[in-house]
Amino acid sequence: MAFHRRRNHYYKRFRSVLPLISAVSGVLLILFGLLTFLAPAPIDTNNPHHKNLMYTANDVVEDTIGKPGEPVLHIPIKGRKDRDVWSSRNSKYFYGCSNASNKFPNADAITHPNRYLLIATSGGLNQQRTGITDAVVAARILNATLVVPKLDQKSFWKDSSDFSEIFDVDWYISSLANDVKIIKSLPRRRGKTWIPRNMRVPRKCSERCYQNRVLPVLLKRHAIQLTKFDYRLANKLDTQLQKLRCRVNYHALKFTDPILRMGEKLVHRMRMKSKHFIALHLRFEPDMLAFSGCYYGGGDKERKELGAIRKRWKTLHASNPDKERRHGKCPLTPKEVGLMLRALGYGSDVHIYVASGEVYDGEDTLAPLKALFPNFYTKETLASKEELEPFSSFSSRMAALDFIVCDESDVFVTNNNGNMAKILAGRRRYFGHKPTIRPNAKKLYRLFLNQTTMSWEAFASKMRTFQRGFMGEPKEVRPGRGEFHENPHTCICEDSEAKAKKNSGPRKYGKGYDALGDDIPSDYQNVDDEPELPDPDDDGDQDGPQEKGQFNETGMDYDELTNEEPELEEILSD
């Protein structure tokens, strides 16, 4: 009996506390639900996009790449709000100016009969673009009729497209009619096909070089073809010839309507996703990396794979990867590009368009960049296979689509200093100095090396300091530095009156405010840390003409001397 009374007593006590237990359990469930809703999504360690980065509840991303035990960077998810990262405050005071002077004679007045210049370009789309532009100026120097340039169909890129399949040939001819007479094909001679004389000029050939070397042959043969024509014209030319260069490059060279329409579709689709977007030209293909001789931390697998590719070029010597990187000759990795952009103030919500070929090690290499910028797009993700089908078998046409999107982007970024980067840097300067970010690779080398030894704030501050002069601001590169195609200083004019009025008014941000948010002069030139640009103008041998079969002081045929392995430049070109 006593046992039954005790059991009944405990049962009644349990029933009395049951509501309290239920209430506490309910509160705990509600709290758990709230925590689940508010907390960031868990990291899927099998997802390559999040393989190296870890999100926390404090709006930061922890970069966990590195050796165990090393400090990590705590990267704010949101970008900087204290400045406009999408434009330059001083760009409105500069504009492209390439109109011909009244003293520049019309083509009809200076073109001689029986002088025909043919051009065979070399390399990828953007390397060929330099040749097409300079061909017009060369024809003007020689007072010759230019035949529409022949595109390179046999090189590394293996694209069978001709000029009229990429560029609007009729617009090209008509828009330059006052400057140079251009025809679509060489006329027949005495009813037979006219075979022009092939020859090659040195790189950076000046006006005098063309007059001494090419003109005598042209007068004798009447039709000559300059082969492998890329960067065969000097950087320093008469002002009117420089302006002609700009009229060709920025006004006469227009893509065909099908390419333009598809390119505009891609731009429109990026704009539908976000008001602003970044375009990144990412050169990280296996061939590119092998040629550079750099090392990216992939261990024996990387050394073996890239070493095997590097052996294709017999003229390449053994490389010193550390030396190459110290000298700023190694392309930034996708991760490094992402960290650079975040340090410059672009948040994780920014939309990014990536123009790239085959990336070495694929998604594993791209994972850190995609984690830093999840809104990641390419032409293949923006358009269907059916839409890209007319272009996908032709590397130059696909490159043209990327060119259009990169040109129209609010900010253009590159991890290299190849031809597309140079051409677009010059074009964006000419059309309003739209932000164009190129890494100061020499300085960034040590910053990335020591990134885990400092706070994110210190890292970002140093990044902004090192990138001064590499952001596409007006006057950041001295006139005459680098290739004219990337620094067309002769064709950029300044509205001095408007700038003077602006400087005389109240200063909202203080004297010297610039796009990086630091107090430096608005026309700051990074003289000590300018990009590694080629020295302008090696005019080459200025003496008499030299045709195929003639020899120079080395005893080598001129074509043999200059005909290095074609792919050496083409790998790095576009």
TrEMBL record:
| Family under the similarity heading | Belongs to the glycosyltransferase GT106 family.
| Gene Ontology molecular function, alphabetical | glycosyltransferase activity
- PANTHER family named among the record's database cross-references: O-FUCOSYLTRANSFERASE 16
Residue spans crossing the bilayer: 20-39
- The Acidic residues compositionally biased stretches are 516-544, 556-574
Pfam families in alphabetical order: O-FucT (PF10250)
Report any one BP term from Gene Ontology.
fucose metabolic process
Q: Which UniProt keywords apply?
A: Carbohydrate metabolism, Fucose metabolism, Glycosyltransferase, Membrane, Transferase, Transmembrane, Transmembrane helix
> Sorted alphabetically, which InterPro entries does this protein's record hold?
FucosylTrfase_pln (IPR024709), GDP-Fuc_O-FucTrfase (IPR019378)
Q: Where is the composition biased (Basic residues)?
A: 501-510
Please identify the protein, giving its name as recorded. O-fucosyltransferase family protein
